[in-house]
Structures are given as structure tokens and as C-alpha cells.
Design brief:
It contains 20 helices and 25 strands. With about 675 residues, it is an alpha/beta fold. It has a 6-stranded mixed beta sheet, with helices on both faces. The protein is globular, with a radius of gyration of 25 Å. The two termini are about 45 Å apart.
Length: about 675
Amino acid sequence: MKSFKEQAKRLVSEMTLEEKCSQLRYDSPAVTRLGIDSYNWWNEGLHGVARAGTATVFPQAIAMAAAFDTELIFKAADIISTEARAKYNYAHKRGDNDIYKGLTLWSPNVNIFRDPRWGRGQETYGEDPFLTAALGTAFVKGLQGNGEYLKTAACAKHFAVHSGPEAVRHEFNALVSEKDLRETYLYAFEKLTEAGVQGIMGAYNRVNGEPACASAHLMDILYNEWNYDGYFVSDCWAIRDFHTHHMVTSTAEESAAMAISSGCDINCGNTYLHAVKAVRDGLLEEKYIDRSAAKALEIRLKLGMGAKTEYDDISFDCIDCDEHNAASLELAQKSMVLLKNDGILPLDKSRIKKLGVIGPNADSRAALYGNYCGTSSRCITFLEGIREEFGGRVYYSEGCHLYKDSCENLALPYDRLSEAEEVAANSDAVILCVGLDAGLEGEEGDTGNSYAAGDKTDLQLPKAQQLLIERVLKAGKPTVIVLASGSCVNVGTDKMNALISAWYPGAMGGRALADIIFGKISPSGKLPVTFYRSAEGLPDFEDYSMRGRTYRYTQDNILYPFGYGLTYSECRAESLSFSNGKAVCTVKNNGNYNTDEVLQLYVKIHGSDFAVPNYSLCGFKRISLKSGESRTVELEIPNESFMVVDSCGKRRKEGTGFTLYAGFSQPDKLSCVLTGSGCAEISCSF
């Protein structure tokens, strides 16, 4: 292995102060005399190479999480890094070192989706630290590869305690206990550093009074406790917030000095333009500039700066190719969650002559994409996928605007409603496609939902869609509601025959939906978040305590539980044993359909005041079961799953014992009612 660290230090030793400081900018200029090209650190790869033209568009991160499949998320990340290399190769060859063309991908987002109103929750792997860590680890390994050089450099964000509200993120102070910090908010970050993630991005907000990008406490944990050896980058223009919003400094020079000396190496923004003056004014020691510049160059050397790598021959042909889109399709198929089914699904094409497809998301590309996306050369909307697969007469009506009260500017309110009603009246069955898109939920400044800066104010559909659902259901036809969203949404009724959460399923989403609706495959996704009944039952959005949040702490207000999702078959966990850290469970498919299922293990610790009130996910595995098949599945459970986190943030074994549960959902009463089955369980003493 080449000594990248020593090479980086040597390069830094030959630089002037101005040159060293310039390498701490996200848009780093060339240092021609040392053979260093210009480089832009800012690139995105959340669910495909983003914002750089054509690329394979995978399902949004929250949808990937719903697949509960580490192998498949690794495969997706490997494809993303392959396409990122292909794009870098042709761009670099042509002298194009612009933004979104580099190899430092600022993904994944491993923040905890603690509140369903947060618009950026769609970028995460859901509300559970264990699931987030497992999927994030697989994603990082897929992005970075295992070659002599890094394939790409992954970046875990946003460190830390960051999940809304978006509107106040630049001045917000997140107050968090040491227990919640260690048990929930930092767990995935620690696991990703253990997995060798090369980048960490800081958050905008303060954490217990300290700006996250220069928090003494967070940096001590990161660098001294976890021995992190990668680079640290600020969120974009977050350092400017030090003196303009957080008011912890008075000038840009002071902000730059504070961030760099704390361990923030790269500035996404322009505050580090003042780094030279900060040194010359005595605010910052030059040794900290040397440290950060060396780390920045080390990452670039690991990626192959100035060298020939094993990835140089990855060609343009691979981008958005059939093979990669097939992987996107598979992820979409496995991510969709069947929330309700009275037996209508799968639809029998031989019994339906006319099918109605209605709704603002039926023929919407935006409903496929989510935020932080690339552009696919071909998108299959829900309408297109259904039409391709059904083959018979398909009636279509937009039904209503996504959020406005009319579709046409000069029309009276609800101008597509009568058409939708007529489609329903003339159809043998109806697929009603409603929900949101990234124009309604997302990041501050990226959405049209400006009154809430990308966050949701409630968990309801826009009024126009609520009225559309009501009118379509009045027709009395068998109706399947398809919900596209990146978060929990209550469609406001239980009168539909079936309900599918399709998330933002990527470019192949329409084909995946059709495959499920018509029974080519059985649905098998599971909710990576709790679907709550209403926002009124939630804690205050700005409250970062875990009390009343997520399946581990919530006692009521639950519409559909974390881990829940139906299939077309009936699978059961029939027995469970545990010994030497390994759980062995016998599972059987008692139904008539072949299906994938997700075996889930939960642990509840007894006899400790520090134990999670409900239980915690401690293992999962996606398995395929043929009709009538029985199988024994073995899962290793981490020793820390049997520990508690005390008020000081220390993880330790405490209590009298634990109960281990195994099944295809949580062991809670609502999941048992919804699925018609419970979990196998075993109790053990410490």
C-alpha cells in the first residue's frame, strides 16, 4: 500500500500558506507547480450520481431502507461508484473539474428520522439506529470498494443531532441528553467510522450550545474516542452561520479559525477565504492549516490523484445501462410496502376489462425521483408501468393538482374532479396514485413548500387530494391507493381495498409497481419509520428528546408500525433459540405464493431503568421462501444489543435479563393485529 499520508505531508511542506489554505476550499484551485489539478469536492450520490446529467436513478434512500437488504444496498452503491468513476473519467479527460464531477460523494445521510415532519427524512434510512448503521455501512463499502485506491470516497452526514426543523437550521440549538446522543444520534456515525468511511460532514445547527462543525464535544468523540482518520467537511455555508446566525464568533476570520482548529478540514462555502488572514492576525496557528491540507490531499491521493488506478478504464457505456437499471428495478420491487390488502391484490387481469388510473402522481416523474437525484434517460411512471403490464383499456385522469386547487390557471377549483369520477364510474377497478414529491418535502430552499421550508406542517395529504380520494371511493369500485412520499403520510381513510407505500421508487418505479399489483412478484418491503396517525400526537418538532419518538419510545398515535409490511403469502416464525450470541429461527411460508420476507429480531432488556421502554431491532435478514417452504435462519446479534446506555452516555450490561423476539414484524399488539400473527420469543437471564 502506498504511503498516501507521507506523500500528502510532503506536498503540504512545499506549499505556501496561501496554497495550503486554498486546498481547504470545496472548490480547490490547482497548484500547477506541484502537479495538483483543480478539484471540486462537492458531489452527491445518495441514490445515484446526482446533479451531473444522466445516471441510473435508484429508489430514494428511505425506499432503500424499506428493502431491509444490506446486500442489495451494497450493490446499488457499487453501481453508483462505478457511474461516478465513469463520469469523472470523461469529465477529467476533457478538463472539466466542475462541481458534481468529483469522486468525493457526500453520501450517505445517516441522521435519524426522528420526526415525520422533517422534509429531508427521505434522504435517511429511517428512524432506527441499528438499521441505519447496517445499511449505511453496506452503502459506504459499496461506494469505496476494496482496491488499491478508493473507488469513491463516501461521506457520512450530518454530524450530528440534525433532523429539522429546516426553517431554523442555521440558528437552531439542539438540546440533547448524553444518553440520547450516544444511544440514538451517534450510533450510526460510530459504526460508519469503524467501516472506514473517508468523510464526515458536519451539521448546520448547534448541539448543546456548540456549533456542530466546531463542537469540542463532538470532535473529541470523533477524533479521540473513535480515532477517525478521514476528512471533515462543513455543511454548505455552515461556517458562515457561526458569525451570522449562531453568534458564537464576530467575524469570518474568527469563524474560520474556530472551525479549522476544531478539526473541520474542508469548507463547503467561502468562509475559509479568510483563513490566510486568520493566521496572519494570530487567530489560528498554521499547524492546523497544515493538518487539514494534509488530510485533504491524502484523500485525493487515495482516489488516485496523479496516478493510474484500476478504475481508469471504466467507460461511458456503463452509465444508465440496462444492467444498472435492472438493479434499480429490483430495489424498487423490494422496497414497496403493502400496508393494507383485503384480498383485492394481486389484481386478476382476466377479470378486469377496464382499469382506471387516477391521481396527480400517476404520470409524474417527480414522484419517482425524490431529492438529490440524477436524470434517467428513461423513466417509467406508475401509469406507464400499469399500462405496459395490463394490456387492456386503461382510463386516465390526473384528478387534481398535487397541491393547488386547480390544474389549469383559469379553471374553477377542482377542475379535474368530474373527469376522475367518470373514470372511476367506467372502470372495473381503480389505481389511485396520490402523495407528495420533492417539491413539497425536502431541504430548505429546494422545495416549493416555502411556508415550511421543506418540512411538512402535518401528516395529511393536500386538501385537493383528500377530496379526490373521497370522490373516487364513492364510485364503489375496487380501489388500490398508491402513496408516493418520502415520509409518513396518513391518506385519511381506511375505505380503500388496498394501500401501497411506493416511496420515491426511482426511474423503474412504474414497472415495479405494476409487477406487484398484477402479482408478478409479492410485495416484501417493511416500514423503516413509524406511520403516525397525526402530527398533533407528536412531541414538539424542536424537542430532540427521544421520549414519544420512534417505535422504541412511542406508546400510541401509531397508524402503521415500524417493521410492518404485508406480502401475498403467510409466513411465520415458528421457533427461536439463542446461544453464544447467535439466534436460530425456523420460519415457514404457509401461504400459496412464493415471496421474499424480512426476518426481524428485537430485544427487550428487563430490570434496568436505562433500558429502551419498548424494544430495539438487533438483527434482520431478507430471505426468499417458496410456498410451503420451511427454513432455519441463523443471525448473529451484537453483544452491545444486550446493553443499556446510561445517563452519562456509557454503554454497559445492566438488568436481570432480556427477551428476544423473532418474526416478520415487531412484537407489538398492533403489528400482530395487522399481520394476523405474532413473533416467536425466548427469555434469558444475564
